[in-house]
Specification:
MetI-like fold, 2 domains, globular, mainly alpha
Length: about 325
């Protein structure tokens, strides 16, 4: 009887699946779920909480911002007071800065799309002398930090006597090599050349094939380039700070830096027209709100544009 039992145990052990040498067992689903939860919590701590604090800071008085719970809501009355104080600073100058930002960003965006998309199409679909050199230059400029180009751009704009004008900011904004390269990648990988060849056989010119076939098919990538260009233009600080000497010409990003110098806690030499910290938080929310709104309305096109060109037709 004991021999039969030992034999049965031996057969079960022999029939049990063996883990190959050098291969570890896969982690359980519970461990994977726990890791995902930890990653989400880390994302909340490092990204969501600062934004939440910024939103709540605009609803408090300066004393509440220092002494109350950082994640507590203040009051609608305090929010209204902060809004009135912010808009009263130097005669509604915050609204002027927001208008300047919108004007610079949208005008540069129109020029970027009008020039960058045809340039990417030409680099991808046409064979001309200097094409490879232009592509290499585009890549090199795209990889250079934007701040390294501010001094050469200043010298060029100054030679044209455009310092302090609208075009001293809009024209450098309009040169967007990343948009050219992004459209080049799309047209060279995702646009069927046979479709363009058929259009040429039917009598379309090169511009007609671009306008009637390539441009409608490239709508997602155009939206992606437009979004990236708008965000880069809206958040640019150093270039308008150098190009625009008058505070009435500042965009919102430079204006907020000017507000920062009037906060006593950050600048002990601030004058009598001081700005409180909740008002500064409210100004920051106003500056980032347009980017958030554009993202919410364009996110469907952004996802499509990010996937465009991922597979070759």
């Amino acid at each position: 009887m004991q021999t039969d039992t030992v034999g049965a145990v031996a057969r079960r052990v022999a029939a049990a699946p063996r883990v190959p040498p050098g291969r570890r067992p896969r982690p359980s689903r519970a461990a994977g779920a726990l890791l995902a939860i930890l990653l989400l919590l880390a994302f909340v701590v490092f990204f969501i909480l600062p934004v939440l604090w910024l939103v709540l800071a605009a609803t408090k008085t300066d004393a509440q911002l220092v002494h109350d719970n950082p994640l507590s809501f203040g009051s609608w009355h305090a929010l209204r007071q902060n809004w009135d104080a912010l808009t009263a600073f130097q005669g509604d100058t915050i609204l002027l800065w927001l208008r300047n930002s919108a004007l610079y960003a949208f005008l540069a965006l129109v020029i970027t799309l009008a020039l960058g998309v045809p340039a990417g199409y030409a680099l991808a679909m046409m064979d001309f002398r200097g094409r490879r050199a232009l592509l290499v230059i585009t890549l090199v400029v795209m990889l250079m930090p934007a701040t390294t180009l501010v001094v050469p751009l200043f010298l060029e704009v100054n030679a044209l006597r455009l310092i302090g004008t609208l075009w001293s900011v809009v024209l450098p904004y309009s040169f967007y090599p990343f948009g050219v390269y992004l459209t080049y990648i799309y047209f060279s990988t995702a646009l069927p050349r046979d479709l363009l060849a058929a259009a040429r056989i039917d009598g379309c010119t090169e511009f007609g094939a671009f306008r009637r076939i390539a441009l409608p098919l490239a709508a997602p990538i155009i939206a992606l380039v437009g979004f990236f260009s708008f965000v880069a233009n809206w958040t640019n600080f150093f270039l308008p700070y150098v190009m625009l000497p008058q505070s009435s010409e500042y965009p919102a990003q430079v204006g907020i830096a000017l507000l920062l110098t009037d906060v006593p806690q950050f600048n002990p030499t601030a004058g009598t027209a001081t700005v409180l910290r909740p008002e500064l938080a409210l100004a920051t929310l106003l500056a980032i709100a347009p980017v958030l709104i554009v993202f919410l309305f364009a996110q469907r096109y952004l996802v499509t544009g990010l996937l465009a060109g991922a597979t070759k037709e």
